[in-house]
Amino acid sequence: MTPRLALCDITKRYASTLANDSVSLAVMPGEILALLGENGAGKSTLMTVVFGITRPDSGTIAVDGVTVDIDSPRRARSLGIAMVFQQFALFDSLSVLQNIALGLPAAPLAAIESRVLELAARYGLEIVPQRRVHDLSIGERQRIEVLRALMSSPRVLILDEPTSVLTPQATERLFETLRELSADGVSVIFISHKLHEVRRLATRCVVMRAGKVVGEVDPRSESDASLARMMLGAEPLPIAAHESPAGGVALAVDGLSFVGSDQWNLDRVSFEVRAGEIVGIAGISGNGQQALMAALAGELLVEADAVRLFGQAVGRLNTAQRRALGLRYVPEQRLGHAVVAGMTLSDNALLTDLSLQSSHVLNVDKASERAAQIVQRFGVRAATSAKIETLSGGNLQKFIAGREMLAVPRVLLLDQPTWGVDAGSTSAIRNELIALRAAGCAIVVVSEELDELYQLADRVVVMAGGRLSPSRAPQQIDTAELGRWMAGFWPADDPRRASAEHAA
Amino acid sequence: MDELASLIAITMNAGTPLLLAALGVVINERSGVVNLGTEGMMLVAAVVGFATTLFTGQYWLGFAAGAAAGTVMALLFALLAIGLLTNQFATGLALALFGAGLSAFIGLALQGDTLPVRGVDGVPLLRDVPFVGPALFAQHWLVYFSLALAAGVAWFLFRTRAGLILRAVGESPESAHALGHPVRRIRCAAVAFGGACAGLAGAYMSTVYTPLWSEGMVAGRGWIALALVTFATWRPGRLLLGAYLFGGVTMLQFSLQGQGVDVPAQWLAMTPYLATIVVLALISRNPRWIRLNMPASLGKPFSPNT
Amino acid sequence: MTSWHLAPRASPSRAWIWLSPVTALVLTLIAGAILFSVMGTSPLQGLSVFIVAPLTSFRGWSELALKATPLILCGVGLAVCFRANVWNIGAEGQLIAGAIVGGGIALSADADSPRAWFVWVLLASMAGGALWASITAWLRDRFNANEILVSLMLVYVAQQLISWVVQGPWRDPNGYGFPQSELFVAAARVPVIVDGLRLNAGSIVALLAAVTVWWMLARTVIGFQLKVVGLAPMAARYAGFSSRRSLWIALLVSGGLAGLAGGLEVAGPIGQLTSTVSPGYGFAAIIVAFVGRLHPVGVVLASLVMALFYIGGELAQSRLGLPSALTGVYQGLLLFFLLACDTFVRYRVQFHQAATV
Lengths: 504, 306, 357
Hints:
- The complex is a heterotrimer of chains A (about 500), B (about 300) and C (about 350).
- Chain A has helices at about 45-50, 75-80, 95-100, 110-125, 140-150, 170-185, 195-200, 225-230, 290-295, 320-325, 345-350, 365-380, 395-405, 425-440, 450-455, 480-485; strands spanning about 5-15, 20-25, 30-35, 60-65, 65-70, 80-85, 155-160, 185-190, 205-210, 210-215, 250-260, 265-275, 280, 305-310, 310-315, 325-330, 410-415, 440-445, 460-465, 465-470.
- With about 500 residues, chain A is of the alpha/beta class.
- Chain A folds into 2 domains: about 5-230, 3-Layer(aba) Sandwich (Rossmann fold); about 250-485, P-loop containing nucleotide triphosphate hydrolases (Rossmann fold, 3-Layer(aba) Sandwich), CATH 3.40.50.300.
- Chain A has a 6-stranded mixed beta sheet, sandwiched between helices.
- Chain B is mainly alpha-helical.
- Chain B has helices spanning about 1-30, 40-55, 60-85, 90-105, 130-135, 140-160, 160-170, 175-180, 185-210, 220-230, 235-260, 265-270, 270-285, 285-295.
- In chain B, helix 1 runs antiparallel to helix 9 (about 185-210) and helix 10 (about 220-230) packs parallel to helix 13.
- Chain B is globular.
- Chain C has one domain: ABC transporter involved in vitamin B12 uptake, BtuC, CATH 1.10.3470.
- A two-stranded antiparallel sheet of chain C has the order 1-2.
- In chain C, helix 3 (about 60-85) runs parallel beside helix 7.
- Chain C is globular.
- Chains in contact: A-B, A-C, B-C.
């Protein structure tokens, strides 16, 4: 049988990395193929080549046995290839129907609407055509993307990390839709780094690592460990065991509320972090985590009492002032927030340095020294005089985390610390966090990776719709229940909190 | 009453170049591109339009030449800002400066020349209606064209698929590109349209509004047009209001002078610019409101290959 | 079929950072040569008058320094502003405002005033320029008004203001009705450095200003904060830097320097207040700032080049009968070419073969 889609020796090099190295793979009609690999393995790049957004440096693509040149998404679509991205191509100020219409050739809106409703019913994707996109939740937005892809009756449907923004329940609904499609003869390529999902959904799995294909297996007959070994190339470094008890309250948040736009809403958030413990905040991004971090770090000023650092009310203090009290922050966005693109490592080492608050003249030598310290201690592979934007994701995050950790913080906040970071750097950062905890630092980690939280945290809380759940130790709560909490349903075991009734 | 009618008439006359230029800016900016060079394009179009009308005796040729000159300059901007991904603000400024220099250069030979002052034709029959006639219907045909253009731009933006695509490009060129729309081509077309409108406005200024050429005669109207578009939140309807309002303010100084108000001419001449500043301050006060209404990608470069 | 597209570089090309202004200059000269021949003059003769002739005498160099002075002052001020991402387009207005205030102080001197009076004139002109710029700063700070449009509108206002001043309250009673003030007394004039030439202390002041701005940007905490605010406002907030403070400092510094330039012009070569104290120095300085890569050393070099264009234009007019408005055209072309060449700092051209369909 001819493969529906066949890639042969696709190579793509970006300025500093070889994203795809002679990659070949094939998908059969009606097959669900999982493309598995950790962050930075080259899966997304490969799919952008298939979809015509990126031009490969060499290699060929064949659809139903015929070699084709896919030079634009339009061409890809005409060949029956549709893609649902991690980043949605949606226009907030327009309606669902207009958004879908923009993805199709010119046609009367009424005809489009009836076809949309027909497909929505067939595959169980609830949708209201007239609503404006900026009113919709992430799950609903993804449904628009899926519908849009289905409108062209594709023969190959590619989904890039679709479940990273979904609750476990929504994920299951998506999987049902994909199974229906596969039964109708559509080939599905499913990109993921989540082993258990791949095992549940796919009949065949191609594993990529550092730009190359390293294996092709039936995931149902593999274990988590064997898949992980293929993905990472080796056993992941073990996390050191932890025993030390927690100390006094370092960070206390009480009744923190903030009304902002869309995702910047906080509703009576209260929790405590003690010295020598790690509190993990789980939840799908967009539920208030950014606002919370900003309020804790000092980028967002709130009521003075809402945030207390070692008993002192700091809600009205800015980032520099809180830094002077021992609070440090590693934000989610690296370039442009944690560091300044266009400046060197030395300059960026100075960015959060306390000496800037007291002196008027810049100490250039101290800056280089500081940068050299960070580079050496945290294994950052770069020269201190290099521009910061030349660093790879892992090295950049090691530099940023290193800069903050070397300042010996008493409270450390981290937002998605290992997102997009290679396995080696991830282990390094996690081990440093463990060491900091042992030294008595109070740490807060916001993460979408449940695995990470289960590994690191002493206690886990969930953020949903701007509210914070009660805390649990990781052993006390399994992923299914955590999934329900992420949708906003948690028990009211604390008389101060009301019970949740919030739809995802 | 006569005075009021004539005041309305000269306000429409004065507001027309602002309206024309600003309509071009609306389409331009709705695609997400800021072209600060409007003033430069208007200046070059003014001198080219004037020279063409002077040598051919045909006004419509002058308008066409002005529009063409504006379009050429706009395409130069597009080559740099869209094709070579240069900083839009700097490139627009370069266009403004270059346009000022180029227009002064071309116009040297034309200093002192004037076109004959023509009576305007207005709309037959309607112009004879008492009060309303002289107030609204005794204008040059380009004035009515500008009104029709305003209606046309509004219809295009909100009632056609092409307008929807344009708005989508302005909101998120990356998403539009992912959906297969030729973002750069659309932006080029929008920029060219902006140039053509600026060109018409410039030619109007030098052949109808004051039928002569002098260096710097556009006197900041290109910049005011840019401010007007923000004031009108990128909607043609509000733009009409703003353009005529500013036309009125510009004319106020002459009316006051004529009435023997004892304020030095220079202070009166400042009024349109001070008014622009006041309007800018008032509408910018709420940054969230501006962000909600403005094309989200305004000013940011777009490359299809990143 | 081969086609090409622009691919972003991993980090800015060091070679092109230098090559770009030089290439732009060469391209401008080529365009200039073409323009000359279109105008009926031999390109070689045109270029030699435009570029070479001003440099062949002491007087020529003195005039060059004289023209470069206001460009350097405005240019380094704008470099500070643009680095902080504050788009001050109204340096021309700040220059005029400085000239008005400085001129006022100059006019209040008389035959018995001390020789150092000119220092007060210059200080006052700095204050005038800074004050004018503070209007823009306040409107941006308080009302979030776009500083490009506000500062530009203020240029037109300043032009009307000086026109009123020299035709109204400060008009020279013995001036036959011309729009100009009385000539300043010697005590209010900037001292000349070399007898027989017009070169005055202003050029030294300009160089000092350039050095000071360099030191501020490279070696002070304020300069560092300014740069961070300009490059990454979110990072500035993260670091605890105040973007409001940077806004005010940037505008006050550039306004003050532009005002100083205005004062130096009227208390220097012009010697009085007139209705046109500047042939667009404030706008030319925008080009200077970009061509000079927003770096004080680059600004000084670019100012010399732009000054050359000014003088070359004047010489071309007197010797070859060409319009001096050519200067404006060349300056605009230089900026265009620079912007185009700058593309190669951040991107490189990538060719690829289209595969068989």
